[in-house]
Amino acid sequence: MAKRHPIPCDLRPDQIIAYVDSREQTPLDLSPLAVEVIGLKTGDYSVKGLENIVCIERKSLSDALGCLGTSRERFQAELQRMLAYPCRCLVIESTWQEMEVGEWRSEITPASAIGSLLAWQMMGIPVLMAGSHERAGRYVARMLLLAARRRWRENRGLLAVLDDDPPATSPADKEVSF
Questions:
Q1: CATH says 14-158 is which class?
Q2: How far apart are CA 135 and CA 119, in angstroms?
Q3: Which pTM was predicted?
Q4: For 106-154, how does the pLDDT look when each residue is reduced to its tens digit (9 = 90+)?
């Protein structure tokens, strides 16, 4: 069996395509990643080829408050679906301090909002308070890059093991038992 071409050690940002959900109304700037708009089953952002692995949901402060109030049941179902993704995160364009102050037009109290966010974290959904839309874009781009690189390194390691194995003459020559 011929050796494969060497597999690059790492992925560069320009080799990764970020997926943005087609329903995303104010998409983030994910530079330097390339972007394609598609319909994602869950979340707002993912990586091409890792759609079942990476799921990032983005919320502005007003969106997050809606998910804590009138849209809570629908959003809870979204969070349950997110739990199936190994790489997942809820990114909110606000800060913990803004949440504590509670200067918004909503019946949601700061204590209730913070309590819900902490409860979501305890159920296994990381919550990243990005502070602003621009910072959220930088953080999401970086998370997508890190998730893609991690999977790349894992798969590269598997392929390296295959290159080290002497080839079998036929599939029947290697008996596999579990």
A1: alpha beta
A2: 24
A3: 0.85
A4: 889 999 999 999 999 999 999 999 999 999 999 999 999 999 999 988 8
Do 136 and 93 touch, CB atoms closer than 8 A? yes
Residue 94 CA to residue 100 CA, distance in Å, equals 11
Read off the pLDDT band of 89 (50, 70, 90): very high
**Domain boundaries, given as residue ranges, for the chain:** 14-158
| DSSP-assigned beta bridge partners for residue 129 | 92
Q: What is the dihedral of CA 37, 41, 46, 49, to 10 degrees?
A: -90
Three-class DSSP labels, 123-150: CCCCEEECCCHHHHHHHHHHHHHHHHHH
Residue listed under structure tokens 């800060």: 95
The Cα–Cα gap between 97 and 129 comes to 10
